[in-house]
Design a protein that fits this description.
The protein contains five helices and two strands. The protein is mainly alpha-helical.
């Protein structure tokens, strides 16, 4: 069994559009599905899970959509960190060198979860 699995999240908007739903529904469904993947990796003994969740192209989407995605990322990180610390000591690191993340304060938020601040 592999010790490292990488996942690229994509297709949430296509999924919700095909069902005539609001874009937020697809993103929320994708976040729930990612939690299932995290749990499966734990059960299978995967030691490292890399998740690519937001590309530079995503910044070109409408502001309301980008803001929703950033809040969803923030809430998912909070939930997962709390869950991981109470279970098996996994840790989570998410990072971006994009100035838009740093300007909004998201950069500091994300790195603090790793136990250290990186500027």
């Amino acid at each position: 069994m592999s010790k490292h699995v990488a996942v690229i999240i994509g297709g949430n908007r296509r999924w919700d559009r095909s069902r005539r739903l609001m874009p937020q529904v697809g993103y929320l469904t994708g976040a729930r599905t990612l939690k299932v993947v995290v749990d499966m990796c734990r059960k299978w003994g995967i030691q490292v899970l890399t998740v690519f969740a937001f590309s530079s192209d995503n910044w070109l989407r409408p502001k309301v959509e980008v803001d929703f995605l950033m809040r969803l990322l923030e809430n998912t990180l909070k939930d997962e960190v709390a869950s991981m610390s109470s279970r098996d000591g996994w840790f989570l690191m998410a990072a971006s060198h994009d100035p838009r993340v740093k300007d909004k304060g998201w950069w500091v938020f994300v790195v603090v979860f790793c136990g250290r601040r990186v500027d």
